[in-house]
What does this fold into?
Amino acid sequence: MSKNLENMSEELVQKAKTFGATSAESTVVQNKSLTLETKNTKLEKVETAESLELGLRVFINSQSASVSISNFNSDAIDEMILRAIAMAKEAIPDELSGPADINQILSSWNMKSFELFDITYDDQNFEKYKNLALEVESAALEVTDISQSESAGFSSNYSNFHFTTSNGFSSGYQRTAFGLYCSAIAGTGSSMERDFASEGRTFFNDLPSASSIGLLAANRATARLKPKRPPTGLYPVLFDQRISSSLIGHLTAAINGMAICRGSSWLLGSLNKKILPENLSLCEDPNRPRIAGSRPFDAEGLPTTQKNFVENGVLKNYILDLRSARKLNLEPLGNAYRSLASAPQPGVGNLELSPGNSTCEQLLGNIKSGLLVTSLIGATINQNTGDYSRGANGFWIENGQVAFPVNECTIAGNLKEMLLNVIAGNDGKSHLSKVVPSLLIEKMTVASR
It folds into this structure.
């Protein structure tokens, strides 16, 4: 199929040029997925899906348009190309858009070193995967106070794609992903609480045991029983490793090239200025083997490289695709992403925030009175000022110990101040694409709802 994808992608670009496009880019994507869910110790759902889709971006000089299709009939493809060209002719000219220069695109790499494809992938072994899902649920149901599982299951995904541009780039690769998950419900009646656990890996044999997933979900759910509302005031807030990456997500959104170009970022004008404590750096490494966010080239054919966005607390780079780099007169960094029917946009895959010196338990132990946040609800983020407000659940801390579970509270602050004074733990998970440890903000507003 890989050869077929390559042929289809290259033929599409050539046909677009023949039909009048100045230049063109095409992506052909094949996906297969399998999901099995159990409930009440019985198999409740089996879902399989297969798709083959094609995306095309055409240029008429500085005008462009993007379309996609899932019908590979020759007449339908011709119609799609003509429609894309007609759309491009009506588009507003944009001198900053356009394919990469030939000297910018990736010329060679060692795909095997990325280890993104598990050759043992098998989407037909239903009995094996059903037993795993049942094992996850059974482990959860064995825990005292667990009244039922909301769902437990196994998932697998296979994807294969090929990307071609009229400036000479043509390549693709295969990728696999496997997951186990469980959502457990503790208590009964109006006193029920729910929590979950999930794990995903690129290689099937790297998955943790199914029973450990169910047990973790159950223990998290039972720990939330009999919640109380916290006091209102200014307190330390510790973001558990489960959700700490959300804070870094707000940072990367603020240094995204599109936000900078629009002037809608609370970190506007912060390049080469301190935005984190000097002991922290934020880097991207797209070449980590067996990691979901790894890739050899970006959505414009540029090589992906290791880089520091923040170095020793100082903002060193924005997250840039070609267009935003041209707009800001900076070098592109291989950070373009795209969907099949859209133009590229800046994005980021693997991230790692350098760890601090303390474990999560040590950070928690130093809190006299404060909040440990394990889940977040909703968000009100002012992209221009960095004002931050979110609903939160977790545990109230007294004298370094968990006092009681908490729900129905709001935490608020300003991201610029929060991140400039953040204290990092050392419990980041190395198998994740986003390796972010627990993060302590020493002063935030905590309010009962």
In short: Residues 227-449 form one domain.
